Amino acid sequence: MATPSRSGVFTQATDRRVERFTESISFDRRLYAHDIQGSTAHAQMLAEVGVLTPHERDQICATLQQIGKEIEHDVFPFSIALEDIHMHIEQALIERLGDVGRKLHTGRSRNDQVATDLRLWVRDALDRIKDGLENLQRAFFDRCEGDFEVILPGYTHMQRAQPVLAPHYWLAYCEKLARDIDRVKDCRKRTNVCSLGAAALAGTTLPIDRHDVMQRLKFDSVAGNSLDVSSDRDFVVESAFVLSLIAAHLSTWAEEWILWSTAEFNFLKLPHEFCTGSSIMPQKINPDVLELTRGKSARVIGHLQTLLVLIKGLPLAYNRDLQEDKPPLFDSFETVELCLELAAPLVAGAKLNREGIAAKLDRGYLDATTLMEYLIQKGIAQRTAHHLVGSLVNQAMQQGVSLAELPLETLQAAHPDLDESVREILGVDKAVAAFRSYGSTAPSEVRRQIEIWRSRLYQTDPAVLKSDEGAITLEK
Ligand code: ARG
Hey, which of 320, 325, 326, 330 would you mutate to test ligand 1's pocket, going by the most ligand atoms within 8 Å of its Cβ? Predict the structure, then answer.
């Protein structure tokens, strides 16, 4: 098959092996809808500036729509001889419209065309990722009320550290995902720039109107330098980074829940719809979705590396290497989208093992820091109080008791200011209630954060909430 890109300069047909080596239709067919969108805007602009007649424009636009439908319904023939999606659609147009079809590529090159298609595709894909992140945020948030009373051991270094309210834990993920959403939105800004009209690398002598195309495709601006934009794949690399960090966040969550669902932790019961069995051990309920969420993050993070290495040696402007941007880019988006889709129902369906968690909550001296801060409030220097409580913990460990159970003599031997009243601040429930700083796990603080998040996620009326530190006005 003769491809529209092989001009009269060629005297021989393409070697079959070269066709197989250079084709991208096997993966860039995903761009078909965006290629048609870009070509339609280009044809409309060409008619505006008088390069196409209105009738030619209408023929081209209608035929492009028809081709789009055929691809959508899987009745469009693909062949590696036509290299990529751009050639397939243009060739079909020429077969159906003859010379009118041959006019579509006026004032553009495949270099600005592919960059435009890819920007349109990435823009839509970023919007889907944003939706997926918001959906997952709501799944975390929706756990807050039901689990409000539950106290969890908080860890640092995977060692028991201080108690935290379960809703504080759920909102921690809302915060991480909020930063991910910000990054997605920010990346969208740099993606949403019109490349079309840069032509091969230097622009065109024809009277095209790039701002007209920009408006039709709902881009925010027109790229100012044709040499730069025909080769610019920063938006691809940046998307791969944004997706990598999302994947890393999902992976840390997955790792945590894999541990929490073990018999050793027994904090969590995972919904059976999201677990698989073992072919040999009938008792097994394996957290495969979580494991694969963790595992797939490796691919996504690897794709970022691939893309950075791909662009690092490329002189201006377009080089065919850039075709290799698509498999990692598509895979990163598709993988993260799928992980997000599964994470939300998993978060909603998992049950905290309240009894099991509460039964072991007195382990690990989670109230030791509270005791230290109690002493600080009595005027003891932090380092002194730190050392003193450390030795009390040591004695409690030796006696196999909690701090609250230490006899009065032991407490007073440690410091004369320690009397029976100290028992009022000891114990995990009291330790949680004693927190007070902004953003801490104190029930009143967590309640305030829940209301802020409710307003952010469900667009409820902004309220003015009072706090010890003054009035806080919620943002819409
Ligand atoms: N399939 C190509 C790509 O993805 C389209 C651009 C081809 N441009 C060219 N000058 N050969 O990069």
Answer: 320
